Amino acid sequence: MKTPIETARYMCNTIMSEYKPNDLPGLKDRYHYIQALFLFAIQRYAKISGDEKCFDYIKEWVDTYIDENGNILNQHDMLDEMYPSVLLFDIYQRTNEKKYKIALDTTVDRLVNWKFNEYGSFYHMYKTPNQVWLDGLFMAGLLLTEYGRKYNRPELFNLMARQAKNMYDHMRKADTGMYLHAWDCTKEAEWANKQTGLSSECWARSMGWVAFALCDMLENIPQSHSAFADMKKQLIELLDGLIKYQDKQSGMWYQVPDKMDFSDNWVETSASCLFAYAMHKAARLGIGNVDKYKKCADTAYEGIMNSTKESDDGTLIIPNICVGTNVTDYEGYISRPRRDNDSHGTGAFILMCCEFSM
Predict the structure, then answer these.
(1) Handedness of CA 43, 278, 330, 125 (dihedral sign)
(2) Which of 80, 90, 135, 342 is catalytic?
(3) pTM for this structure?
């Protein structure tokens, strides 16, 4: 059996051998998180393994969108297109080329001056005013808290603490500890409940983004900062809730986790990778019930590995990955297409393997 880092290498090589950087699956000609998630994953793998070919691969994609003056091309007013700048910390450190720092600074400035709802939460997209999606904690949080740590900007910790707290206060179901995918405080969105402004369902991958983001933000935020204790508590409560919905047979989680007994519900791989990552990392950092989280993580990892398969040409295949998904209802989440080796899953899988190698 391959070690976790060997499995990460296997997945990296599978995708990198099939696609040139600018042919990666995702929205074409866009500075977008779908491609950047896979690139972020191989960047983390390279830091652990020392595999230098990953750096050139990542840089080729980034250089398509950042010109010599540090302008970012095809970056629109949505959090999904702020996230790719998380790749720039490592590239700037290794090259010392000013254009990467300019692009990084520009993205952070855009987020600081973003549009917010009346509670101080990011609009997920400018074209959908007041809509807050769980995904946004990941899209902005990793970038802003790492920038805050590296460049002594503690106010960025406060900004992300507000995002996390608003999600806890407004989007969490107190009876289960699960989070609903989206919230519109004006209650005007098509999907919004007219009393609460909330969407109707808990979608697994959106909660996976929250669990992942909380873990990584807690690494960036000093324990002495006022936000640390609240985020730690939020992570513990989320992980404790998720354990109740881990499928005993597969060790994984369902597309709509709190309706696992519905006959048309199905086990989804990308979210399961994100949850396994968060469980393992929390245990490694000494957060919460370490033994319980480690057992849950190990069970999930085994289940995910058992679900993978090798193709005839020797590449690794990860099945049952939900494609990109907007806010919808139960039927909408359940009817979303599933693809092998969709970028949402390959990136999450590599990140999980990297975490399990530590």
Answers:
(1) negative
(2) 135
(3) 0.97
